[in-house]
Design a protein that fits this description.
146 residues; single chain
């Protein structure tokens, strides 16, 4: 009888744990679904980098290579910019701390589409980046076509 109780206790812990885990990307999207994006401007990361003043305080959608790490959370124009530490070809991402680790596991070092408000006057950690995307509304993974 004791072994049966131990089995059911262990099973219930495993069952509850596995079904209490959520997809961090879906959770992020769900938390931000009510944030009114206003008029979203589709823009390339290179446009943001070369003419940041045109997009200051605008809600933008941009695609790039995302790196999520301590003091290095940024969207790079290309993976090669990340590989070569070309910070000026990247935009700082102001990501809330809640869920950052889980999002990092799923989204870091991948191409993504991001919707958020661009700030040309804030340049991230030590001013190394070419602007900041804040008030994130959405992050979507870009499918790898390999």
């Amino acid at each position: 009888m004791r072994s049966v109780l131990i089995f059911f206790f262990a099973f219930s812990l495993t069952y509850n744990y596995s079904y209490s885990q959520t997809d961090p990307l879906l959770e992020f999207i769900e938390q931000n679904k009510d944030a009114s994006p206003g008029k979203v401007i589709n823009v390339s990361s290179l446009q943001l980098i070369t003419t940041p003043e045109k997009y200051h305080d605008k809600v933008i959608r941009v695609i790039g290579y995302l790196n999520l790490e301590f003091e290095g959370t940024a969207l790079y124009a290309y993976k090669s910019d990340y590989d070569n530490h070309n910070y000026k070809n990247s935009i700082w991402i102001n990501l809330p701390m809640k869920g950052r680790h889980a999002l990092s596991i799923q989204c870091s070092k991948k191409y993504v589409s991001i919707i958020g408000t661009f700030n040309a006057e804030q340049n991230g950690h030590f001013g190394m980046f070419s602007g900041t995307i804040m008030n994130l509304r959405r992050i979507d993974l870009i499918e790898d076509k390999k």
